[in-house]
Every structure is written in C-alpha cells, then in structure tokens.
Design a protein that fits this description.
- It is a single chain.
- The protein is of the alpha+beta class.
- The chain folds into three domains: 95 residues; 79 residues, no CATH class; 100 residues, no CATH class.
- It is 48% helix and 14% strand.
- The protein is elongated and about 145 Å long.
C-alpha cells in the first residue's frame, strides 16, 4: 500500500512540473482543448506581403539608377525585373552589354548575348549575389569600362583548329582545352577579326588587353601549332618506308602514300644497282661477240663426248644440252629451261646482287 502511494505521488509531481514548464514556454504542441482551434502563431504568413516588400525593393532600385551614356533601361511588359543594356551606335546598332536583375535582386550579365558567369570572371566576382543600390551602380560602371577579351585571333591558329574539328583536346584526359569562338567580332591592335581561339576558361570580359587565362595559354597554343605544322609539312612515320606499323592499322590515304613511297624506293634501288652493274662490266667484262662462232663450233664438236661421258640425269649433261639448245635458237625466250638451270640462275643472281651491294659499299666508303 505504501509503495503504491509513493508511485502516485511521483506521477502527480511530474505532471505538475510539465504543466508549469508549458505555462512558461508556450511553444510547441497546443493542449488538447486547443487542437481544433487555430492559434495566431500557427496561421501562415501571406505571400502578398513578401511580394509587396520585394516590389518595393525593386522599385526603389529602379528609381535610384544612375546609368552611363549609351546605357538604357528596358520595359519588360509588366515584369518587375530590371534589364539595362549598352547599345553601340554602329551602322546597325548592337547591344554589347546587358544586365538583368530579378525580383529577388539576383542578377546576370550578358556580353553580345552570351551569359558571363560571375564565378569565372575576376571582374564580376567582387559583386555580391544580391545587389543593392551601390553595388548595382558599380556593376554597371564596371561593365561599361570593360572590353571583350580577343583571345587568339591569329590566322594560323584559326586554320589549325579548323582542321581539328574546331577544338584542341588534352592528350591526357581527352578534355577540350580551347575552341574556335565566333559569337562576336573581336579587336586586337586596331584590327577586327570574326573568329578567334579561346581557352575554355576564358573570362570573356577584361579591363586589360586579354584575360589572364588566354595570356597564360599563349605559349601552349604556340607549341601545339609548331607540332601541327611539323606534322603536316613532313611525311609521317606511319607512311615512311622504314615504318614498322602494320598495314591493317593504316587508313586508306596512309596506305596509298606508303605504297607510293615503297615503289619509289624500289625503283631508286633498281637504278642504283643497274649503274653499279654497268660500271663493273666496263671494268672487268669482256666482249663475246667476236668469239660467238668459235664457241658454237666447240660445242658441236664436244657434244658427242659429253653424251658418252655423262649420264642423262647428270647436271653437267643437262646444262650442256640446255646451252646448246639456246645457242641454236634465234630467240632465247623459246627455250623451256630445266628446273635445275633455273635454280642455278637464281642462286647466281643472288650472289651477284650481294657482290654488287658490297662493291657499292666499297665505292661509297671510297
């Protein structure tokens, strides 16, 4: 009985502590009797009040604009955003710079219709994401004094990228490093260019001659151009006669070029060997025209002796009869040479070629 009274007293004490804490801090879940009733704190805040405050802020920003010359404010057909632009008075007026401010005071800058990210531009990185009157006027002044980064409009660079599908990729990661850009004409040293080569991290606008990324990329672009020029001005290793590249790995133009190079080399080798043979014949050769009849007489006289001393399948008799047959014909193309004679001729020609090559090396060293 005493234990039960102790538990009831403890429960009553805890409930009293919760009630007093709720009275001191009236935040959280309402009591049961108030669940169906709407408390003033639980009622949603009207969105119109926020929109009215935003409209007042954007209107106040619109009223305190101080635009430089050639800058105008555009009406957006009932939209509360602010759009200001700089228009150059050319033969055909062109909007070069523009800024759009949304109702939440966030902004976005455009150069010749191309969006310029504030996170990638050093000029725009110093301005906050949400503008006030002072920062908005400073932004307009900064854009008014800025110029379009010309990149690298050199003719040789543009021609190089034109042959490379308009971009240069990294050898290691295969990512695009630079591209041909023609969204707006650029000026450099008093000349105007319709196309230029830009690094992918180009800041587009700058207050100097070029942005830092394009200045730093100049040396790498020059090295790429020299490699490309050397590769196109001299024959490649894949099509040279000393190349070890398999023909299956070559495309059709490379195969044709390699065939031409090999044919040209074989013709040059043939002419060189022919000249060497003529020189050796003039030095060590003898004329056989004066002894032709004597040779014919000797062969006819010795034919019977050769037939009696050598069998039919011996090489000496075959050789003798083949030479006698060729001697009796007016055109030696009518002779059907024995396979043994053909093998002898091939072996003899190989020996002569080796000797001619060795003599050629001797002449060359001399």
């Amino acid at each position: 009985m005493g234990r039960r009274k102790f538990k009831l007293g403890r429960a009553h004490k805890l409930s009293e502590q919760k009630r007093q804490a709720t009275k001191k801090n009236p935040v959280g879940r309402p009591p049961k009797r108030c669940r169906n009733s709407k408390s003033p704190m639980s009622q949603p805040v009207s969105q119109e009040s926020h929109s009215e405050e935003g409209a007042l802020t954007i209107d106040k920003l619109r009223q305190n604009l101080s635009l430089p010359s050639q800058w105008t404010l555009h009406d957006n057909d009932g939209s509360r955003c602010i759009v200001v632009s700089k228009m150059m008075p050319y033969t055909q007026p062109i909007i070069t710079h523009s800024v759009r401010v949304n109702t939440d005071l966030s902004w976005e800058a455009f150069v010749h219709g191309k969006s310029v990210s504030s996170s990638k531009s050093q000029l725009l990185a110093k301005f906050p994401d949400v503008l006030d009157i002072e920062s908005f006027n400073s932004l307009i002044t900064c854009l008014d004094l800025s110029t379009l980064c010309p990149g690298h409009p050199d003719k040789q660079f543009v021609e190089m990228l034109s042959t490379m599908k308009g971009k240069i990729s990294s050898r290691h990661s295969n990512e695009t490093v630079s591209v041909i850009d023609s969204f707006a004409p650029v000026s450099l040293n008093g000349e105007t260019y319709n196309q230029t080569v830009r690094h992918v991290t180009c800041e587009i606008i700058t207050n100097t001659t070029k942005c830092p990324h394009c200045i730093q990329y100049r040396n790498s672009l020059r090295k790429s151009f020299h490699s490309w020029q050397k590769r196109n001005s001299t024959p490649t290793r894949r099509t040279s006669t000393s190349s070890c590249t398999n023909f299956t790995l070559l495309n059709t133009p490379e195969k044709l070029q390699r065939y031409k190079n090999l044919k040209r080399r074989s013709l040059a080798t043939e002419r060189r060997l022919k000249d060497v043979m003529e020189k050796l014949t003039l030095i060590h050769g003898i004329s056989l025209d004066d002894h032709h009849n004597d040779f014919e007489t000797i062969m006819h006289e010795m034919t019977e002796e050769v037939r009696t001393t050598h069998t039919e399948d011996s090489f000496r008799r075959i050789f003798w009869e083949q030479q006698l047959q060729a001697l009796q014909l007016n055109d030696r193309r009518q002779v059907r040479w024995h396979p043994s004679i053909i093998k002898l001729m091939v072996f003899t020609s190989e020996i002569q070629i080796v000797r001619c090559l060795s003599c050629n090396e001797v002449y060359r060293c001399a």
